[in-house]
Amino acid sequence: MYMQSSNQFSELETSSVFIDESFRPKHKKASKNSTSHYTSDDGFSGCLVLKDDNDRLTEWLAYHWLVLPLKYLVVAVDPTSTTSPESILQLWNSSNMGMDIVLWNDVDFGHWIDEELDDKHRHRARQKHLYAECQKYHKERNRTWVALIDPDEYITYNLITVDDPRVHHISETPKTFIDPKYVLSMKNIRKNLKQMISGGKTVFDFLQDEKNKEPWISEPCYLMPRLFFSAVESNPHQIAEADVAQFGFNASRFSTLRYFHHAHRGRFHANHFGKVIIDLSRINITEITIDMESIHVPIDRCPHALKPYTAGILRANHYIGSFEQYSSRTDVRRSKEKFNIFGNENNGTDYQIQHWLKDFVSLVGSEKSKDLLKHAGIVDIGTTRIIDTEAYNKVPPPPIYYVYYYDINGQIVDKKRLQKGEINNHEFDLDEIVERNLRK
Question: Is residue 103 part of a domain?
């Protein structure tokens, strides 16, 4: 199913004021009667897999529309969800916000469910397939930077703080990232970030200005360290600093405005592997494949997913949310014990993005903001999985091919399983291929 927007901004005034490490990005306006699509250099693209994430989705959309800005988004829904994001996405598509969102089900990107996998790996397989097809979709439309993050992750500038960590060396960290010269050059860029963004630059504007400099030339797949935010509650005074009650918003419904306590910056525990943004203009479409190493390393030119915190110009804030949000999703990886461990991380506070919603309202207007964000923080889980409904169209698995290798006596000495698309990449006689169609 595809949904299209009119791709035009409403007539709103913009401002650029640096306030307490937050910023009001400059958004371009279209003329009142404009119906043209925005060009690819206007902003970010995104690829997103959702599984009962409606309570997080509107906050994620609004934040990244403001900060990146996010302009083009492909959303895929895990059919084990009991909810659909369609009404929320339609609301944004029809809002003249200049965002073009398409909703894909499994049939739209040809994803078939491997029954041999457990639930966790089926979800990962869907993410890999979506990331591959989504990147191709955006590249074919001449779009540049694409963000590959989850609905509980928020991209921001990695400003230097008083608790900035030393470089923590983890064995699998690429040597380039721990080279003293590289770390120093990245830290020098971070020192200038406040000055660079004080004029209201979006992340995309910043990347466009810096694209012919390092590290962007050498890192078309740019790895961002993550900073994990726990469920430790802030006091009412701290939450009130978001200053959005005047517009009728309850800040406690927004993870980014409610949770400020985080894990140790730079430590692997809780923060885990980084996430990437990719400059599609600097990679070949043949580099994009479903057979990626992981969702953290979606193309071969991506580095291993470990980067020292101090070497990251951008970072991804990762929120666990409330226990109600955490426990509402069916996920074998989630448990009360795990929530108690990670939900109580408390090794510092960070208020860098606390004013984003106030900036959003000042740009969009109070009434429109409340309409777009009315679903924020509301957990509403259904009882029937999408995959169990008549409306779900199951994609049949492709044929599986085996290559048999024989010795001089005609005995099979080896057998290799190939996907159909891999056949042209191997050299063997056609009479060695035996097809076994698994569709029954």
Answer: yes
Mark whether 212 and 239 lie in a shared domain: yes
Q: Are 274 and 411 found together in one domain?
A: no
Averaged confidence pLDDT in the chain: 85
Q: Domain range spanning residue 420?
A: 400-436
Say whether both 313 and 176 belong to one domain.
yes
Q: How far apart are CA 117 and CA 135, in angstroms?
A: 24
Q: Determine how many CB atoms are found less than 10 A away from the CB of residue 167.
A: 16
State how far Cα 137 lies from the chain centre: 16
Count of the separate structural domains present in the chain: 2
Q: What is the dihedral of CA 69, 72, 78, 84, to 10 degrees?
A: 90
Would 17 be classed as within a structural domain? no
Q: Is residue 106 part of a domain?
A: yes
Specify the pLDDT at position 422.
54
Across 13-20, average pLDDT: 30
Compute the distance between CA of residue 299 and CA of residue 271 in angstroms, rounded to an integer.
22
Query: What pLDDT is attached to residue 216?
Result: 97
Same domain, 379 and 418: no
28-74 per-position pLDDT tens digit: 433 333 333 334 457 999 999 999 999 999 999 999 999 999 999 99
Query: Do residue 260 and residue 298 come from a single domain?
Result: yes
Could you write out the DSSP letters of every residue in 323-343? HHHHHHS--TT--HHHHHHHT
Q: Which pTM does this prediction carry?
A: 0.84
Q: Which DSSP category does 311 fall into?
A: G
State residue 33's pLDDT score.
33
pLDDT digits (tens, 9 = 90+) for 135-153: 999 999 999 999 999 999 9
- Which is nearest to 314 in space by CA: 345, 275, 269, 346? 275
CA distance 134 to 128: 10
Beta strands in 151-225 (DSSP E): 153-157, 221-224
Are residue 432 and residue 353 in the same domain, yes or no? no
**pLDDT above 90: residue 265:** yes
Looking at the structure, do residues 311 and 361 belong to the same domain, yes or no? yes
Question: Which residues have C-beta within 8 Å of that of residue 157, sequence separation ≥ 6?
Answer: 193, 197, 203, 206, 313, 314, 315, 352
